[in-house]
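Retro notes, item 3 of 5
We never archived the inputs for the 5-amino-5-deoxy-1-O-phosphono-D-mannitol complex last cycle. Fixing that now. Sequence and ligand:
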Amino acid sequence: MCGIVGYAGNNEAVPVLLDGLSKLEYRGYDSAGVCISGKDGIVVKKSKGRLSSLAEKIKSEGGTEGKVGIGHTRWATHGAPSDINSHPHRYGKVTVVHNGIIENYAELRSSLTKLGEKFSSETDTEVVAHLINKYYIDDPISAIACACGRIKGSYALGIIFDDIPDKIYATRCDSPLIVGIGDGENYIASDIPAILGRTRNYYLIEEGEIAEISKDGIRVCNFDGIPVTKEVQTAEWDIEAAEKGGYEHFMLKEIHEQPKTIKATVDPRMINSVEGILKDEIIDTSSIKRIKIVACGSAMHAGLLGKNAIERLARIPVDVYIASEFRYCNPIFEEGSIVIIISQSGETADSLSSLRLAKKKGIPTYAIVNVVGSSIAREADHVIYTWAGPEIAVATTKAYTAQVAVLYLLALRLANDKRTINKDEAVSIFNAFSSLPDHIEKTFSYTERMQKLASLNSNINNLFFIGRGQDYSLCHEGSLKLKEISYIHSEAYAAGELKHGTISLITDGVPVIAVITEKDVAEKTISNIKEVKTRGAFVILIADRNCVDEKNVSDICDELILLDSTAPLLMPIICAVLLQLYAYYTAVYRGCDVDKPRNLAKSVTVE
Ligand code: M6R
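Structure as it came back at the time:
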């Protein structure tokens, strides 16, 4: 949540900062601001609303010439979105932008107030400017270190001192921060896309480090001022990956990238045989007796599908936890447990804390992560990367399916190692992975159908997704996708559970999306469809054509989509793409801001 950028170079800072912020807007977009150090001294411009409002303000007011600056795009935590609460925050000689939460800000604020200091905003961040200023005489490193010593919480900070106009300073704790290395110009940023148009080379700033950035160089030291030698990282993502590439929205582009991202994630792990799956990431599976999957949102939903697959194929018990619950539930770790954290960003605060909790208990940790070098990737004992590339739309699509694919590979490897499936079944699933990108590609031929369905249902208030087993797990994701971008209330229900209460909500015309990809339970779900149909539901059935008899099901649903079969295990990935398209077009018909849904941010780096 919140994105920060900084620039020191030979060019005007404002366009560079605005461009960088535009790439970070997915992290928060309720207000934005910049601080420029230039010919008019230190100038702060900030504005409630989208980045475009800030750009307008700068254009109309001027006064922002300068080649050094910091910028911020906000997701409000403390204090409503307003001009005054927007970052940067300035006090005395110090101006800061901040991503994170200062947990003890109230206490700090009250003690600073007692010393006579006046606060102008309701934010937690403002205390940081006050604190650094309090400790600053002429040594910025020691002032930052002293201030950080008093702060509890998470932060990535960009800082400018009035009397050091050619430099920016940066530090972090539990919030991401990189320093971009350019030619005669250098940068800070919360995430790689912000600098990708200008450089691929960067340093990862670790906790307890402070970076001093000018156009001529970057110096990194610890809180005692002792220099730290950093290793240059190189971003593999190409710039196009972080652009819309002709699509109306990032989400649509990312949906369409899935054949490619699944291939990129699966192929390198499928080089020889089932035995070789994930062998670079997981050496020995023999000690794994129990798995706890911990994640948030869609990543947790991927975990639910992982549980279905691992339990079915490998017969290893799997518990799936919401990270914000796991970290406070005093979990019981049975012997032979491992913890798998799933996270696209690798920065989600609750997931990161859950990882740390498991590590503290001495439990082996695995992370399924999309962002290379992110905190979760760095701290886990073992990392399995999803190679989905940068995901910009707040609603995840390609990262989710890549996470599911990785979990399925893991299930197959575990099952093979434990001999819980026979060779033929293992080989047949193994082979099916290679045609998965083609199956996904084929779902795009349903685009018009999904558009039509979305337009039919775009005025509804409620919708239900029903399924059994893996289809129920998938329904959770279908429902979240629809809710978060179209603002239609929806629920995922185990098809057999409806009649225990929720069926009372089914009245004439209430849409129900049913999913059937498992033959064993197909007839059961069909009975449940009949139950809602007789109560007036508008039923859309998405099914594997192998699981149902078209003649029998056409009468019990209003819309029928029959997908070509592949290994049943893989069908949820294919169906997920259809549900993503449905959510996308529904949001478009309702005029919603698809890529930046209200109140949300892509990367939830606060509790
Ligand atoms: O970066 P992470 O995968 O850890 O994020 C977890 C959730 O915040 C995320 O999946 C969220 O639910 C998505 N926006 C849903 O589309």
